[in-house]
Every structure is written in structure tokens, then in C-alpha cells.
Amino acid sequence: MLDNLSYQKDSELYNLIYPNIIKGEKDIAYFRLILSILIAVLVLLMGIANKSFNLSDKVNLFITLVAAVYSVVLLVLFGIEKHVRFAGYISSTVDITLVSLSVYFSRYDPHNSIMSIMISSSFAVYMPIILYSIRRHDPVNAIYTGLLAGFEYFVIVIIMFTGNNFYNNGILPAGYGTSNDIVNEMIKVAMLVLCGYLGYAIAKNFDKLFIKGLMDRKEKEYIKDTFGRYVSDEIVDKILQKKIPVDGEKRTATIMFVDIKNFTDMAEKTDPKILITVLNSFFSLAIEKISSYNGIIDKFIGDAIMVEFGAPIADKKHRENAVRCAIELCKSVSGFKNPVEDIGFNWKMELGIGINSGEVVLGNIGTQKRMEYTALGDVVNIASRLERMTREINKPIIIGEHTYCEAIKDIIESETHFKIKGKNKPVKAYVVKV
User: Fold this and answer.
1) What is the pTM of this model?
2) Percent of the chain with pLDDT strictly greater than 70
């Protein structure tokens, strides 16, 4: 497995990149298969033209057959089994060794062999294989492939020079000096090794960019899934541009809880399909109104909604917007077409809304499998309690002390105090006119 790479340590990230690792191996297999077929065709054409097949031609045909069969086997295996890192090193070894064998056996009749075209600059044959190893998402594999190519070509050169084959068999044109020849071939060896290092550097940077691209795409999908259904495209774009943090912060915001009064009693006596229709119709209306006042729906809690104003995007008028949104919601449901009336059930939709402002903690809460952007803190708890108090005093909207501001003082009906569980002193609050 790719256990030495950073993304392998993150199983979720590895699961993201794994399909592309398999795609890379398949691309290499197709490349090997196509190259094998092309070389085999050229060897056959030259053999037919010369009316004979020498040892070099026969070896090359056998090598291309092995490469083609190996490619097909890998394509089948990648379709049914999980890829392991070691398989990439096996493939690199097979590819480089097959090319080296083809180069070596071309010595037996280079003038009639397709490989005679390559022998003068045979290091170039290895380069596509070395650079194509980048697609394995394993930088170490690239440098391994380059080192192996350099080593095997070095061995071929030594064998040929030791046996004086460069002169006796006419591998090199006449007039080349032995000292120059060996220097030229050693330069080719060095270039193969350097090509491997280049592949390593490219693969490393390619992987960083590729992983960053995957993570950015994953984050965008999450943000759009989390916020896209409930807020405007403008806010989603700002979150994606990192202008709005979602990884945890303290922010002064306004929290609103909206609940449908007496919904439970009605639910016990109504068909579930009709209940869902009622809720969806109301939620559609609520989303439209809340979005128009720059609110963000935190979550749906049964027949209730938790909303944030002033977060994650800052809004200087978050208190006023929350209160005026609450008023408009209450007015809107007064003319709401209630599906339960069609079946003769006497139930009028009324809302209970609690609003509170102050410093809250905002961020993504949960696990990797399930996360949500939400607000936490005492401000949230009090807003929820104020919503419950609307039933006790039979008023639709109650706001906390810190939600009160000059912009809404003309719509305040009265000041009151509530004893809330967990608080030693009564909480100051205001009843809003509707």
C-alpha cells in the first residue's frame, strides 16, 4: 500500500485519491499495450521486407508479446482486485527489463532490426516509461524506475564494451573512438538516473497539487451541501472564497428558534402524508423569508427551525433583521393555506419564536461521517427557552435583553422577566408586537 505517503495516513483522503491511482495504472497498461503492438507491427513489416526474421526480431516479437499479455492481465486484475503499492514496482521492473532485453538483443543483427533505430540513443526508449510512472502517485517509484533504467543500461554498455562488440559487430559507426564511446554511453546512464529524479520531483509536486485539488473539491461539495439549500449563492461563494471561516470561531450573533404551536396535538390526529405536506409548505415559506433577512438555517428540529443571523457572514443589523424576520413569519402564516382544513380538521397555524443575541461559538461540529455547521453557547440555550415561554404567556415573539436595540424599540409591546432553569436570576426579555 502507499503507506509512506502522507495521504495514505489519512484513510479518507486515500479513498479519494485511490480511484485515480487505479486510473493511472490502467493508463500505463494501455500505453504499454499500444507500444507493444506498434513495435511488433514494425518488426513484422521489416521481417517481411527482408524475407527473414533474425534472432533480434524473434526476441523482440517475444518481448512485445510478453508486454501485451502482461498489460491485459493487469487491466483485468485492476478491475477486480485492490491495488497495492508493490504492484507498481513490479510493473516498473518488468517494463525497464523488457526494454533492456530488447536493446541488448538488437546487437545480434542491428542493421535488420527495428531496434537498430534506437541503439544510437537508446536512453530515449526508457524516458517515456520513467516519466509515465508519475501517474502512479508514488514519487519513490519514479526515482526507482530511473535508477533501474540507468543500472540496466550501464550493464548492457559494460557487456558490449567488454566483449568489444561495439567494433566487431558494427554496433557503432566506424571511426568512433573507444574513450569517446564509453563517455557518451555513461552520459546516457547519468541522464536516465536524472530523468528518474526529475520524475520524482514532478510526481511529488503533482501529488501535492492533486491532493489539494481533491480536498478543495471535497470542501466545496460539503459547503454547498451544508449551506447551499438554505442561503443565497452569494453567501456560499464567500464561504468558498475563505472570506467566512467555518472551522470554529467566536462571534456576536443572534439566534432564533421558530416552532409551530400545537403541532404535536394535530399530528396525533392527522395522516402522516398531510403532516409532511404542512411542514414542507411552511419550511418553503420560512426559508424564503429567512434568506431575505440574511439569516442562515442551522437545522430543522421536527417542526421547529434554528436560525442564525450575523453568522457565518457578519451583519451589523443582525438583531433588527432577526426581529423583523420573526414578525414577517408570524404575519405570513396568518394567511397560510393549511392542508388540514381541507379534511375538516380545525387547526390554525401559529408560531412561537424566541430570539436572543450575544457571543456564540460557531463551527463544524460532529465526525468525519456526519458534520454540521452550528452555534453553541448560553445564548443559544436562552433563545430556545424564550421560544418555549411564548406558550406560557400566549405571545408569538419574545426576545432577549441583548437583542433589544434602538431600531426595534417602536415594536416592543412590553418588558418582562422569566425564571429560566439553570439561571439564578430571572432573565430580562421583551415581548414584540405583531
Assistant:
1) 0.52
2) 75
